Amino acid sequence: MLASVYSAFLANFRPFLPVIEARILSPREAFRLRILLIHVWRRAILRDPLLPEELLPAPWPGASARHLCRDLYRSIQAMAETHLAQTMLTAGGPIAQPNPDYFERFGGLVSGKAMAHA
Questions:
Q1: How many domains are contained in the chain?
Q2: What's 86's domain CATH number?
Q3: Rounded to whole angstroms, how far apart are CA atoms 115 and 42?
Q4: What digits encode the pLDDT tens for the residues 77-109?
Q5: Do 83 and 30 form a contact (C-beta atoms < 8 A)?
């Protein structure tokens, strides 16, 4: 059953790769995709006992799903954060910059500051 959840994740989110590579997403669309991506990913990962690879049936789609989620998230996170910065307000004014720990997600994200220098 979990394999089918990961297979569905792959089938549903792989089509976004060419869209992201073509850079046709707006910051708002990137934000929406990030919400959907993480919502669906969490539903899958919370069911996974994270067994060692040698105990999993072959072929196991979990690793491919994990890489796809990481790659998509890394590709859209800066644009999604741009949308938040442009649209979200708190009682004290504009939304704060992400905590430095945020940039450690998925093995490391590019910060807005680093992107400005890239």
A1: 1
A2: 1.20.58
A3: 27
A4: 999 989 988 998 888 888 877 777 877 776 777
A5: yes
